[in-house]
Design goal:
about 100 residues, two-stranded parallel sheet, about 10% strand, globular
Length: about 100
């Protein structure tokens, strides 16, 4: 494994495992929320190297959430923060400064 990658993944994986039962409660079946009701500034990010299902979901969220901003990261797959940390930081900084 690449130098430092194990340490970078340890915390997020531990959090995921500790909260697995909660994730299961909220990830069964189709979503039922009304995306058009989201009324806060929303940034939707997706990796262009991610599987097509996740890309489709991100584009749907961006299209249905009023005023949402979609950012596609060309060098990232599912873990944008791992694949494109500098690009993500720049996008988040700009978005949060608005």
């Amino acid at each position: 494994m690449a130098d430092g990658l194990t340490d970078q993944l340890r915390g997020p994986l531990r959090t995921s495992l500790v909260n697995q039962s909660i994730v299961g409660q909220h990830s069964q079946g189709p979503a039922t929320g009304d995306l058009a009701a989201v009324s806060v500034p929303t940034l939707v990010g997706v990796g262009k190297l991610d599987v097509s299902d996740f890309q489709d979901i991100a584009r749907r969220y961006a299209a249905e959430i009023p005023g949402a901003t979609l950012v596609e990261f060309s060098t990232a797959a599912h873990l944008i923060a791992m694949d494109a940390p500098a690009e993500l930081s720049a996008v988040l900084s700009s978005f949060l400064a608005r």
